[in-house]
Design goal:
It is a single chain. The protein is mostly loops and about 70 residues long. The chain has one domain. The protein is about 5% helix and about 0% strand. The protein has one helix and no strands. The longest helix is centred in the first third of the chain and has 4 residues. It starts with a helix and ends in a 68-residue tail after the last helix.
Length: about 70
């Protein structure tokens, strides 16, 4: 096979605006989280797996970038 006869190419630093179509050779890590808080990228609902109610009670609401002010069970 060709891959057995060829070696890996050396790593090359490339500006982001020139990186289209290239492949990362090593893992990449951000120096800090962005946003700087835990966040969800979508709206949703949480329901306890053992709750077989037909109606559910709203116990709290969390706005983006805030910390919940209610206790979960």
């Amino acid at each position: 096979m060709i891959t057995e006869k060829t070696g890996a190419l050396p790593a090359l630093s490339t500006p982001l605006n020139c990186a289209l179509g290239r492949v990362l050779r090593q893992a990449m890590f951000a120096p800090h989280d962005l946003p700087a808080f835990d966040c969800s990228s979508m709206d949703g609902y949480a329901v306890a797996a053992d709750d077989d109610s037909e109606r559910f009670r709203i116990i709290g609401e969390i706005q983006p970038g805030t910390v919940p002010e209610f206790e979960h069970r």
